[in-house]
Amino acid sequence: MKTARKPLGLLLAIAATAVLANNAVWAQSLGQLGQLEQAMDPKHKKIVLVNNQSSAADVFINFASNSVINVTNLGGFCDSQSIGSLNCHHTLAANKSEDLPNPDFKYVNLALAFNHVVDCGATKAEVIANNPDWYDIMDVSVVDGFNNKIEIDATEHGKMPVKLGPPAGMTGNQQLFGVFPFACTQCAAILNAPCGSNGAGECHAGIESNPNPPCQYQMNPPNGMIEIILQP
Predict the structure, then answer these.
(1) How far apart are CA 11 and CA 14, in angstroms?
(2) Adjacent-strand bridge partners of 87
(3) Where along the chain do its domains lie?
(4) Are strands 57-63 and 108-114 parallel, antiparallel or unpaired?
(5) Which ranges of the chain would DSSP assign to H, the alpha helix?
């Protein structure tokens, strides 16, 4: 019995489809490789602390254990109220701004609060900057509570800033870009809230992998400025 032969046109179409599929996979792989290379480019971002209030502010910074910048290499920036190598205290004068000392743009992983220790009851700025292994990421968090209005302005050289927050208060943050609402550890959901909860109605719409709007900002350009601002 003879095996039925596929028409030449059909064979060519199948071959062309296979080539296109392979090219698509190759293009996707190249795109992912390009993103990875961009993520691992050397970064040169400075962090600036800004106090827009009319009185001096206590700045409490908790550095992650993997942060290259911490109390030990900030010189006199962290005062005598600092504890160990990871918990920094600094006083920021009224209506003033100061750079977090980091002239060599080393890796920084921090959580910061104004006028309250970084714990339950505090609004927090959470920033990962000059990350050698991935993009830089930041957010304003009311997950543990609210005590003031913190805004983060992320500015690429020559561009307008991307603004995160400030939060509206303890509640009412469902529509705010760059803000984790109270107890919403997953932005659009609650999992093991550390400081109490008012229910998932405070969270953003969507799901953890695709919240609307996002609670974090991924700052892809390698250079720029991150301002952590205490607003009135």
Answers:
(1) 5
(2) 62, 83
(3) 1-39, 42-231
(4) antiparallel
(5) 8-39
For residue range 49-69, what is the model confidence (pLDDT) as tens digits? Answer: 999 999 999 999 999 999 999
Prediction pTM value: 0.85
Residue with tokens 């921090």: 110
Q: Can you identify the CATH homologous superfamily of domain 42-231?
A: Thaumatin (2.60.110.10)
* Digit-coded pLDDT (tens) for 160-186: 999 999 999 999 999 999 999 999 999
Answer for the pair 231, 52: CB distance below 8 angstroms, yes or no: yes
Indicate the DSSP class of residue 220.
-
Residues 102-134 have pLDDT tens digits of 999 999 999 999 999 999 999 999 999 999 999
Residue 83: both structure tokens together: 């504890």
Phi, psi of 16 (to 5 degrees): -65, -40
Q: What's the mean pLDDT in 67-84?
A: 97
Contacts of 132 (CB under 8 A, 6+ apart): 40, 42, 43, 107
